Amino acid sequence: MNPNLESLSVSLLAALGGKIVRQVVALDELTIDVSASDLRDAMLAVRDNPGLRFEQLIDLCGIDYLTYAEGTHQGPRFAVVYHLLSVTKNRRLRVRVFADSNEFPVVSSVVDIWPSATWFERETFDLFGIMFDGHPDLRRILTDYGFVGHPFRKDFPVSGHVEMRYDPDQRRVIYQTVTVEPREITPRIVRESNYGEV
User: Fold this and answer.
1) In a domain, 172, yes or no
2) Which range marks the domain in which residue 121 is found?
3) pLDDT (tens digit, 0 to 9) for every residue of the chain, 198 residues total?
4) 174 in any annotated domain
5) CATH code (residue 110)
6) Residue 73: inside a domain, yes or no?
7) Phi, psi of 33 (to 5 degrees)
8) How far is the C-alpha of 84 from the C-alpha of 62, rounded, in Å?
9) What is the rounded CA–CA span in Å between residue 183 and residue 194?
10) Which pTM was predicted?
């Protein structure tokens, strides 16, 4: 482990102690796992602790581990990953939390800690169906209001459930069951006559 990551690891252990479930260094970045019940306390500590000072939430995303490692993953299915930046200390940190329930995944919102999380949490809710307890306006952001399901879940059908199209006879947008006709796609190769000649 490089000295910067080792120093960060020591600072995190001092600030969070038993709240850290696991630490992993991969691709020269440190990732810590915290439990869903400790998420808010851990996030406040990494933001406010003088030895850490992660002032910015760069990104937040959901992960569905349903088919991870060819389906051999043991443990909770849904996780949320937070990418944090300390401008003061010039460090980055990745924090991962697993939702306790696979049927109704819920983690605490961090909007009041980092306001930039607002749209990221809405996107994660929309695409993965992960709920954020305490979010002030949790609703779909990328899919249509009538959209059924969460398209980034691994068990979501590739063709979807319904499709939307404009009906000129009814003069409005309508929803109908997806109709995908199977077809064989044969690639066409087009080459110039003098291809590869100098």
Assistant:
1) no
2) 3-141
3) 788 888 899 999 999 988 999 999 988 899 999 999 999 999 999 999 999 999 999 999 999 999 998 888 889 999 999 999 999 999 999 999 999 999 999 999 999 999 999 999 999 999 999 999 999 999 999 988 778 889 999 988 877 667 778 999 999 988 887 766 766 777 666 666 776 666
4) no
5) 3.30.460.80
6) yes
7) -105, 135
8) 15
9) 33
10) 0.80
